[in-house]
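quick one, two chains, predict together pls
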Amino acid sequence: MKKIRVTGPKTQLENVIDSIYDLGLMDLEEYQGDLEKGGPMDESEELSELLVDIRSLISKLEPEGEEEASIHEIRNVASEISGEVKELENERDSIKNDIQGLEEKKKFYKKLKGVDVNLDDISSTDSLNFKVLDFDPSEFEEETETDQYEIFAGRNLSVLVYRDTVEVEIENSLRNVNAEEYEYSNSVTGRPLEAISNIEQKIKEKNKELEEVNQKYDEISSEWGPKLNYVEDYMTERVEKAEAPLNFAMTEKSFIAEGWIPSKEENTLRNRLISATENKIHIEIEDVEEEDNPPVKYKNNKAVGPFESLTELMARPKYDEIDPSFLILLTFPLFFGMMIGDAGYGITSGLVFLAGIKFFPQASKLFKALLWTSAATIVFGIIYGEFFGFHVLHTPFYRGDLFTEIFYLSILIGVAHVNLGLLIGAYNEYMHHGIVEALFAKGSWILLQIAALAAYLTASSYGTTPGLAVGLGIGVPTLLMLYKGEGIEGIVEIPSLISNILSYLRLFGVCIAAYTLAGTVNQMANPMLASGSLMGIAGGVLIMIVGHTLLTFIKIMEGFLQGIRLHYVEQFGWFYEGGGRKYSPFGGE
Amino acid sequence: MALELGAALGAAIAIAVSALATAWAQAKIGTAGIGALAEDDSLFGNVLILVAIPETIVIFGLVVALVIAGFI
């Protein structure tokens, strides 16, 4: 990155903003200094308001495609379209409400199916009354003393018709048998069966109305939608440009814009600005200084690129820090493959990741990185000779026979991986604070491990005392170095070095678990497959399909989480800080 | 016989208790982490690390269990 400062007369302001925006290479930085900051251009506020309206319309109409239109045209019709859309929405809501009400009524009458009496006839008489109830008629008949009633039983509910004169007795009896009364809405006439067909007719009508409204909606969407999309795009650009001076320093007649530009693009921007303003501005380009906080842009080749997404998941590197994406490419697929190690799961997980690239394009970079892990899983599957838990290939490395070896291998990998982290940490220290600091702060950790190893080796061949002597001989000065380099925190952190290395035993743990889980599914399916009957074989195949599908996802999750955390926690802890600012050029993607 | 039974039980307890401890710690960290993510989802990496840290407990449990069971 290079620091760039553009100074010019206000007359050139628009020219400069347009050029920077069109090029999409300069990351604008807010001006921090004694001069006053600029305000947005005059049109900004008005444009923003219109933009809000347009965006709300777009979110409602969900139009597709773009069609050229002028702001002027849209501005004139925006409020009209908004009004129409609002009206249609209200209409749609009220129709939907009506339909819902009708559906509920229909449900109610369905419960009354079988009651062969017109309830409206009863409510129109003077002497009769009725209730819709959920109750046990025989219990009620025993309970009540009057006989001035009749019960019409329906499918789930019953209708109790009675004379007004016995209302009190009836209500008392109903209370005693815990009857539940339903409210009756009398807007639909006729017997329940007729009522149901009436309601269905009405629902049909309402649905037709709804369709008409939707059609009008679609008409508006297809007439104005593409134009709205076009104007939205265009106006977003205009508003961004209009608000750019907020980052600039302004005097009465001139402006200063500051920002960052990738070193190799320096001349592109300079030439563009000079030609756009006919050399009426002054451009300064400086190298990054220590106190600066430039934005960070990844610079990796095609293979490492996808792994930036995994670095990003943790934190973007700082400007002067080593980008660990390459380290993740180096060991993450290896760990994943070693743990899962099954050609079958390598293929299925690969399919899952390919589907991920297709259906989640915004995360395609991550899935592309994960495809490497599938490849590694297939390779390790071939080394182990496993295919969906079956031992199909007789290689000398069948992991079922090698648990002890994998156990020690895991620790060795841990030692190597952690020390790689320490070496990079030492390099970072060397770049920033010199060789002495690198040796004290990071080298001492490596020496500490050497001390432990030397003590162990001496003790095993010459006895405990010489071993202890060697250990202390190297260990004590190392501890002093560590204290000098990292302070008391360094001493306190010593157990974490051990726990970090032992943490790599999860490679071994997940490896066994993956091996056993796949075997378990096959064992469950085997007796059924061996039964010989058609049903048995079908059941066995079903178990295998369901089991291995489920395991594919479990293994992806385990392999991913356990593999990536060994980087984030155990390795990065020794050197990585992160916290860089994302490079987002003005007008760029 | 009694010794073998004791060793097997010991191994079982080592793995079971450490697994429970990890689960308990992760549950607490996970809840707090989700809360933090709801506020600011750029913290995802940090939260993932915090949730992952207690997993080492169960790995130690596994190692102890394997040592007791005579595997190593």
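The two ends of chain B are 20 Å apart (CA to CA).
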